[in-house]
Structures are given as C-alpha cells and as structure tokens.
Amino acid sequence: MKETANIQLINDSQLTEYRSARKQKNSDYDGVFYFAVITTGIFCRPSCPSPTAKEENVRYFSNPYSAIEQGFRPCLRCKPNLQIEKHRSYLSGSEVLDQAINTIESGYLNQNSIADLANLLEISKRYLRHLFQLHIGLSPKKLANYHRALFAQQLLIDNQPSEHLSITDIAYASGFNSVRQFNDIFKQVFHRTPSDLIKSIADKNNGKSERFDDHIQLNIPYTHGFNFIQVLNFMKSRLIEGLETITNDPEPTYYRTFSIFNNDKECSGYFSIQDNTKEQSLSVKIHSDNIKISMQISDMVKTMFDTRANEQTIIKSLKQDKLLKTIVKRYPLPRIPAAFTLFESIIRAILGQQISVSAATTLTARIVKAANLKTPKHYPEGLDYYFPKHTQLQNLDINNLGITNTRIQTIKNVCLAIQSNELSLDRSQPFDQFYKSFTAIKGIGEWSAQYVSMRGLALQDNIPASDLGVLRGLTKLLNQTNIKATSDQKELITPKEVQVLSEKWAPYRTYATLYLWLYDADKEFQNQ
Q1: What's the number of CA atoms in the CB half-sphere (13 Å) around residue 403?
Q2: Is 406 helix (H, G, I), strand (E, B) or coil?
Q3: How far, in whole angstroms, is CA 467 from its chain's centroid?
C-alpha cells in the first residue's frame, strides 16, 4: 500500500468537518467524502458501522477511485463502491471535468478512445489527462477500468450466482474486452477474483442460487430523500402510449422499451423499475438482446430518475433564498425529469410549443404509432413500440397527425441537422456547444432550448424563463410573500424578471423550476 498524504483539494476546514462527520458516523456525508484506515487497508463511507478508527490511522478521499489508486480496498460492510455518485467535492467549479467523469461512468470509453473523449469535450488529450491527475490522481483510462470493476461487482452481487449469467457475461456487460482483463482489474480493486466473490455469495446463501429468466438485475442506489412516487406522478401525465407504462400490481412499477446503439450495433429490449426502500435503491430489470448495453442502460436510468442529486446540498442552497424557502420546506426535493434520450426530449419540446402537456404527449404517441416500430409479442402489455430514430423520423409522413406544418418542418430541420452532424445527440457535450447548434435550427427558440437543456441534457442550472408554469408560479409566490418584482404583481412577471430573480438560485435553477411547477399546481398551499 502506498503511503500518501490526504488527496489534494480537501482543505483544512473540510478536513475538520469530515473528521467530525466520521466520528459521528453521519450518513448525510455519504458520497461527500470517503475515509481509509491504513492499519486495515480498507476504505469506507462516513456512516460505516465498523469500530471508529484512531485519527492518526485515517486518510480522507474525495472519491472512491483515489482510495483504490492508493491501494485501499472497499469495505464489505458499508460497500462504499456501490454508492459512488452522490457528490463530487473535488470539482472546484470545473464543469469539463464533471462532464468527463459522467461520460466515462456512462461507459463511453467502453466503445471510444481517450482522443474521442477529448474531442467531445473540445479540449486536448494532454489537458484532459492533466485535469484527471490534478483533481483525481489517476488517468481517465484507470478511472474507466475501476468503474467497470465496481459495476461488475454490483452485477455479481445483484444477480447472485445466477445460472444464466456467466463470468464472461458479467465481464462483457461491464465493458471489459476480455475475461482476462476483467479478472486482472477486479483482483486489483477487490484483492480477490470474481469467482471468489461468487463463492462467498453462494456460501452466504447456503449454496442456493437464484434463477433469473432472461434479464440482468441491477440495484441503483439513490440519495437520501428520493421520492419514487413523486417521480412516477410526474411521469404519469407524460407517458407515451405503446412505449412506456406504469402498473401498480403488486407494487408501482415503471416499464419502457428501448432501441439504442452500442459500438455501432443496434440493441433493443425493455426494462422495469421498482422502488427498493429497504436497500434505498431502484431495482432495475433489463431485458435485452445484447448484454453489453447494461452499463449504458444503468446510466440512462440514473439520469432519468436523477439518482445522483445531492439533496442536502441543493436544499441548503435554495433555502437561503427568502422567496423559495417556504416551498422548499413543503415539498421533498423534486428530481430532474429527464427524458430517456436527448432526441426524445427534443421531439417532445417541439411538439409541446405553446400547447398543454397532455396534448404534446398525445401527439408524441401518434408519431410513435405511425413509425410502427413494433416490439416482439412476448413483451409486457403496453410495450408495443420503440421510439423512432432521427433517420426513421426524417422520412416518416406525419402530415395527418394533427401537428402543425410549422412544427413538422422544425422536426424535419432537426433530423437533417443531426444527419449532417450539425447537432450532436451526446448528452455529455458542453451546454454552450449544444445551445449554439440547437438554436441555429429554424423553428427552435429560447423556450425549446431551455426545456431540452433540462429534460434532455439533465442540467442542474437552467430555468425556462418564458415557461407559463414558471411565470405563473413565481408571480403567485411573489404575491403570497409580498416580495415585489419590478412589474405590477397583478400581472404575470416577465421572462426577463425571472432571469434576474433566478440568478440567486444558481447553480440549482433547474430544481427551483421544479419547485415552482409543484407550487403552481398546489392550490391548497397557495390559499393558505
């Protein structure tokens, strides 16, 4: 094990705070930092139930990868590696590094090179490596390998010693190119082989193995305060008929189909999601014709349900604003309702211009049905179609679906821009790059760009200032709290005034938007 001082970017004030949190076993700091004990060679979450180690034997880290790089292995009691995406204290405002890490954790380097990643982020390979060494202490390639190993361990645990999933299956599902590479890196991280882990799970279960039919089981941890029912309630009015559905038998379950590309190969299937409150995670079952898309689907689900949000930090920030604090106290933190893909959110935004949510949802369902990309008959009821890709939609006749000619032409313009590489559908692209290319398309205005930035790119700091729900909710809130804006409060405030007021809510303006939507729909609260 390397004898190394605490990782950089944890300053003295943070260290004092972290020491106190570790001794108190404060779960609010899980994901904010990690600590390792040099006498045991193990790293843990702050809330780990193990006996409290002496301070002189403890090292603090801002992320689990740094702990692994220094030779520490994950604790088997608190499993710090299974809940690693809550918070990144090492960013220091570096958006490009955040984008790089999110992209790597989505499995991007399973199919692409470091040069591809640098080009995507519009920086040089040298500068990309410099950022990683400076802020994390390891290279992008090592981070990708460690993340694959952590993902593989999660698959092994969640699927137990399943009869239909072999070591080879797990290796490829986790993005490794060979079983040998998988075994080598897994052993480096966990100090034992995948086979050893499977044996220990089987021993714990008295040799019994659970049989899964044709799917991969995956538990995605979420942060404190996550409200699964609240997310489903938001989705219910926006469900695309034939593409996704929600059932309540025996418990609330979300289903949807997918058809995506992995390493230039089209993969299709469907997944289901339930709330596992005991484990504080989403229980996901992925049915697919290609096991290699597991990490990709996992990342897309995390984005859809916003499981990475750090509730404590966001609420603390927004509560400081005297205008928002009353509604922040009333509602649990709403999660960013991201669409499954960026392209899907773009089409929804175009169809939703100046019409109701239900009307836009109906039009979207008509397009899906007209595309007629049918699923196999064995899919669950209600999962009848896949969402069309831009190449399929570009040549589809949608003139008799009740969509205005202007919006039809805008959809065609978007498809052409994607086809000519003028618009990227990669969620990891910088916001400025997307905004510039998206608004350059004829028919795309400010509202559409801001809406897609929220539901398509899942950005935390965007507010659609001209959105009627935002204007209405903020005007009512100003009237209720007797805080004056520059306009007559009997009328709706202007988008310009929204922009001015919202500056204080950075960097969490998207969550402020969601709070305003909740407030706008809450007649009881407004009348109090």
Answers
A1: 28
A2: helix
A3: 24
Residue 464 lies in a domain: no
Residue 381 lies in a domain: yes
Query: What is the pLDDT, as a whole number, of residue 121?
Result: 84
Whether residue 220 sits in one domain with residue 369:
yes
The Cα-based distances of 210 to 4, 284, 319 in angstroms read: 42, 16, 46
Question: Does residue 382 form part of some domain?
Answer: yes
Can you give the CATH number for the domain in which 81 is found? 3.40.10.10
Q: CA-CA distance, 516 to 65, in Å (whole number)?
A: 37
Domain that holds residue 18: 1-89
**Contacts for 503 with CB less than 8 Å, ≥ 6 apart:** none
Side-chain half-sphere CA neighbours of 419 within 13 A? 13
Residues 379 and 234 in one domain: yes
How far apart CA 384 and CA 303 sit, in angstroms, is 24
Phi-psi region of 207 (alpha: psi -120 to 50; beta: other; left: phi over 0): left
CB burial of residue 218 (10 Å; 0-12, 13-18, 19+) = buried
Matching residue, tokens 């596992």: 276
Per-residue model confidence (pLDDT) at position 199: 76
* Amino acid residing at 410: T
Report the distance separating Cα 139 and Cα 364, nearest Å.
43
CA 318 – CA 324 distance, rounded (Å): 7
pLDDT of residue 94: 59
194-204 and 140-159 helices, crossing angle to 10° = 30
Q: What is the pLDDT of residue 158?
A: 78
Number of domains in the chain: 2
Give a yes or no: residue 225 inside a domain.
yes
According to the model, what pLDDT value does residue 214 have? 62
Residue 140: name the closest of 122, 115, 119, 120 by CA. 115
Q: Given 419, 444, 463, which residue is the final one in a domain?
A: 419
Q: What is the CATH classification number for the domain harbouring 351?
A: 3.30.310.20
**Same domain? 261 vs 397:** yes
pTM over 0.85: no
What's residue 86's pLDDT? 40
Gap between the Cα atoms of 470 and 520, Å rounded: 8
Same-domain status, 236 and 375: yes
Residues of the chain short of pLDDT 50, as ranges, are 1-8, 84-93, 207-213, 486-489, 525-528
In this structure, what DSSP letter does residue 462 have? -
Contact 452, 349 (CB under 8 A): yes
